[in-house]
Amino acid sequence: MGNFTHPITLYSDDRRDSETVDALVDTGATFMTAPRALLERLGVEPFQVVALRLANGEIERRHIGEVRVELAGQERTAICVFGEPAAPPIIGAVTLQSFLLVVNTVEHRLAPVEALWL
Question: pTM for this one?
Answer without folding.
Answer: 0.90
